[in-house]
Structure to design on (156 residues):
């Protein structure tokens, strides 16, 4: 039930092109329902996966350097590539909201991100995600180098 509720909120938000005020309402509703999903299952699992592990690893490497939402947003896009699903929908939301412009105003350190991807699987022992299944650093490195959406989001 918790997983279905969480998935439905994400689908509702990402699938509906809206005016700004309607988008804010949808986002608030999605966050509220996602919180309910977390309560139902007694865990942050419906809202937290590889993208949050990367964010927590970044926090270990550079405490307080960037906002959690910015880190998770970039990580969500990258992880969608690793999972092979949802990338176009995520990219659409990030493009429509001007997210990438915000990231480019203060780019991340490329080497720090690669180290965070390396460390992420160990942040929460026993928490299985796509990052648990091998070394994803080469693929992430390729994305940082070649993906047009990520251009300007990372510095050397």
């Amino acid at each position: 039930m918790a997983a279905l509720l969480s998935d439905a909120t994400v689908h509702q938000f990402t699938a509906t092109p809206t005016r700004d005020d309607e988008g804010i309402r949808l986002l608030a509703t999605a966050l509220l329902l996602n919180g309910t999903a977390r309560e139902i299952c007694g865990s942050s699992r419906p809202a937290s996966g590889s993208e949050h592990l990367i964010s927590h690893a970044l926090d270990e490497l550079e405490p307080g350097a960037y906002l959690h939402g910015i880190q998770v947003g970039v990580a969500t896009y990258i992880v969608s590539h690793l999972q092979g699903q949802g990338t176009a929908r995520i990219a659409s939301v990030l493009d429509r909201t001007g997210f990438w412009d915000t990231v480019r105003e203060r780019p991340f350190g490329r080497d720090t991100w690669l180290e965070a991807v390396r460390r992420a699987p160990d942040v929460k022992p026993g928490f299985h995600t796509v990052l648990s299944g091998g070394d994803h650093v080469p693929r992430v490195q390729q994305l940082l180098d070649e993906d047009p959406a990520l251009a300007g989001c990372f510095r050397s």
Summary: The radius of gyration is 15 Å. Residues 54 and 120 are 5 Å apart (CA to CA). The chain has two domains: 1-47, 50-156.
